Amino acid sequence: MSVDKLTAYKSIIVILLVLAFSAAFLVYGILSKSFTVKNTGYIEAIGVEVYSDAECTNRTSTIDWGYIRPGGAKNIAVYIKNNGTVPMILSYNITGWSPPEAQNYITFSWNADGAIVNGGQVIQVTLSLAVDENVSDISSFSFDLVIIGTEAP
Known about the structure:
Shape: elongated
Oligomer: single chain
């Protein structure tokens, strides 16, 4: 099987899983009268690499936040590695909110803004997502997290 076909099959499986989770969430929400937000966010790293493990063997480009109830929050640990030789200052940017109004109710934060990562160093970073208790009419959302490593002065 070619790499392109394998990639296409993986993409189809991911889409089907997202649709299945969305349908399950809709039924759950109707039956339980509760509201939970589902998200899988995408990560783009500039100047650094992001891993799901401290050994830096599992590079990651997505975060599955799972379900978060209104008023709830969730933390996920990732590991950021500077593969270069010069120190990098970390920052981030959030883009591509879908639906756009989700950014009014959902807050992303992390514990690494302005952190300096030396060449070859790996640091653990906690990504946090909080959902406003007054959120409504948003059953799922997505956004892109861009993690940026800028050369330190």
